[in-house]
Specification:
about 110 residues, five-stranded antiparallel sheet, 2 helices
Length: about 110
């Protein structure tokens, strides 16, 4: 199941944090940031710090970041049954190995 972010009904407020770095928020929630590159372009990042794109102007980057939250899913897609089975198997094996390491440590520790 995938949840989508709330519709962008309120305006994004931008704050200049440092030279060439801007942070956006909407109703107090972090929306993303925009960073100026050494070549003068602007790179936008969404609320998960995923690059949204490279833009020639700050305004373009800010618009892209502000709109990215409304279209990005908040949760990852459900993994397939095969993927879940593989992760469960890996977790079981690591648990058995950890238990074996604990048993070896307990059995080889000298008693005082």
């Amino acid at each position: 199941m995938s949840l989508l972010a709330p519709a962008a009904t309120e305006r994004v407020t931008w704050a200049r944090v440092s030279e060439g770095f801007f942070v956006g928020s909407r109703s107090g929630d972090y929306v993303g940031c925009v960073e100026r590159t050494p070549d003068g372009n602007f790179v936008g990042f969404d609320f998960r710090s995923t690059p949204v794109g490279r833009y020639a102007s700050l305004a373009e980057a800010q618009r892209a970041v502000g709109g990215a939250q409304a279209t990005r899913p908040l949760t990852s897609p459900e993994p397939s049954a095969r993927t879940q089975m593989l992760w469960q198997g890996a977790a079981s094996i690591s648990g058995v190995l950890a238990l074996g390491a604990l048993a070896a440590a307990v059995l080889t520790t000298p008693l005082i």
